[in-house]
From TrEMBL:
Organism: Ligilactobacillus ubinensis
Gene Ontology molecular function: ATP binding; magnesium ion binding; shikimate kinase activity
Principal EC category: transferase
Subunit-level organization: Monomer.
Keyword field: Amino-acid biosynthesis, Aromatic amino acid biosynthesis, ATP-binding, Cytoplasm, Kinase, Magnesium, Metal-binding, Nucleotide-binding, Transferase
Alphabetized CDD domains for the sequence: SK
Localization per Swiss-Prot or TrEMBL: Cytoplasm
Protein name, per record: Shikimate kinase
Gene3D superfamilies reported for this sequence: P-loop containing nucleotide triphosphate hydrolases
Designated gene of the protein: aroK
EC annotation from Swiss-Prot or TrEMBL: 2.7.1.71
Annotated binding of substrate, by residue: D32, R56, G78, R135
Pathway note: Metabolic intermediate biosynthesis; chorismate biosynthesis; chorismate from D-erythrose 4-phosphate and phosphoenolpyruvate: step 5/7
Sequence similarity: Belongs to the shikimate kinase family.
Length: 178
């Protein structure tokens, strides 16, 4: 694993991970997409049929599998760091965990028309901000570096990620992810 991207929905994880993977000539695993492929149904359908607890369980299992078997870029789901065991895994990981963060206004403008986000569907900007506020501490607790993405292009974010990864690789490592 080269880099793990975490952050709230709409922070740019998927977009940045694709560009980063191309620059590093690595593959990318997008957790949400991996869950959809594993379950053979959309995230919205999983939430409707099974509920959030089931979704988080599957997300945890896929996180463990990806960290054991993948050698590239991981874009986690927005809720991946919500589980304590996922936080602990990310904190101990020998891979840089980078938090992408956007303001509540930017987040709302990026996701308001996306119906594939069951935890955000129908939320006002203020309600979405409240959900985001509840998660911030968990994101910060397992991040090695944070990038505010509001005024940056995806390519600028990737440049910051690459600069951090370069300095990270010259430092003492944490423990293995798995």
């Amino acid at each position: 694993m080269e880099v793990i991207l975490i952050g709230f929905m709409g922070s740019g994880k998927t977009t940045v991970s694709k560009i980063l993977a191309e620059k590093l000539n690595k593959t990318v695993v997008d957790m949400d997409q991996a869950i959809v492929e594993s379950e053979k149904r959309s995230i919205s359908e999983i939430f409707e049929d099974e509920g959030e607890e089931y979704f988080r369980k599957i997300e945890h299992e896929i996180l463990l599998r990806v960290l054991r078997t993948h050698d590239g870029i991981l874009a986690t789901g927005g809720g991946t760091p919500l589980r304590i065991d996922n936080q602990q895994i990310l904190k101990k990981c020998d891979v840089p965990v980078i938090l992408l963060e956007a303001s509540s206004e930017t987040t709302y403008s990026r996701i308001k028309a996306d119906s594939g986000r069951p935890l955000a569907n129908g939320l006002s900007a203020k309600q979405l901000e409240s959900v985001k506020r509840q998660r911030v501490q968990r994101y910060n607790s397992c991040a090695d570096y944070k990038i505010i993405t509001d005024d940056l292009t995806p390519e600028m974010v990737v440049s910051k990620v690459l600069a951090f990864v370069s300095s990270w690789n010259s430092k003492v490592k944490k423990h293995k992810c798995s």
